[in-house]
Specification:
four-stranded antiparallel sheet, alpha/beta, 6 helices
């Protein structure tokens, strides 16, 4: 297992940051870049804005944040048009993180008002509008990707149901998750993650951030990668504070 090298910079594609940036979602990109730089790994962020051409051929990590219904509707057509690229990227082991609205966009479909909008279909997940109140608050889940519980903040009216080809990101320890009923949160496909957790998510969950970075480097180098450890006292304290608040 090799230590990381100072080879070509990790390329992070941040999709539609001008529209999809609820609850500090941009902080996930900042976190990924900084955790690379602290280890001497180059990192570059490319912001893909509405109307820009999409080319993932040199991308290592894709990030899609959350937005309101209007913002989701604006970017949905462009993501659906890039469906073949997204499928090829993920099937080739490409790393992707999509939060809340981005998560819904990557599923089979979701509702805006009474109108059903077709999603990308990358994740076997379908979102409908819940009849009850919005699912709001801090949340903690257990996930096979991390030793520590993953924590974050959720605020969504949609209820997302996973199909037989979807694997949950984790099991809800406290909070609502995908639908407030099933006990599942998020969805996985290869190295692509969809989740409702804002916060931003990654600064409070350093193990998840490093999982994404490691998978990206392994895809590039073709061999296992062992990241140099970082102190992470503040990150772990932030995670512990949320868990203490939830009693987890």
């Amino acid at each position: 297992m090799s230590e990381q090298s100072s080879g070509p910079a990790v390329r992070i594609a941040h999709l539609y940051p001008e529209l999809l940036n609820l609850y500090g979602d941009r902080g996930n990109v900042i976190c990924l870049k900084q955790r690379c730089l602290w280890r001497g790994i180059g990192a570059e962020v490319e912001e893909v804005r509405l109307g820009d051409p999409i080319d993932f051929s040199s991308t290592d990590i894709i990030f899609i944040g959350g937005g309101s219904d209007r913002e989701e509707e604006l970017v949905c057509g462009e993501l659906v048009a890039a469906r073949d690229q997204l499928f090829s990227y993920v099937e080739d082991g490409g790393v992707l993180l999509a939060v809340c609205g981005g998560y819904q966009l990557l599923g089979k479909g979701y509702l805006i008002g009474d109108e059903r909008v077709e999603g990308v279909g990358l994740l076997d997940a379908d979102t409908t509008r819940g009849e009850g109140p919005r699912l709001v608050g801090d949340v903690a889940i257990s996930s096979p990707l991390c030793e520590m519980p993953i924590v974050g903040y959720e605020n969504h009216a949609g209820r997302t149901t996973l199909g037989p080809d979807a694997v949950p990101l984790g099991t809800v320890l406290k909070g609502h998750g995908n639908d407030g009923v099933s006990g599942s949160e998020g969805a996985l496909r290869n190295h692509a993650i969809g989740t409702y957790l804002h916060g931003p998510l990654l600064p409070k969950n350093p193990q998840l951030a490093d999982w994404l970075i490691s998978r990206a480097l392994e895809r590039r180098t073709g061999k296992p990668v062992k990241l140099a450890p970082l102190p992470d006292e503040e990150e772990r304290a932030a995670n512990a504070a949320v868990r203490a608040h939830l009693g987890v």
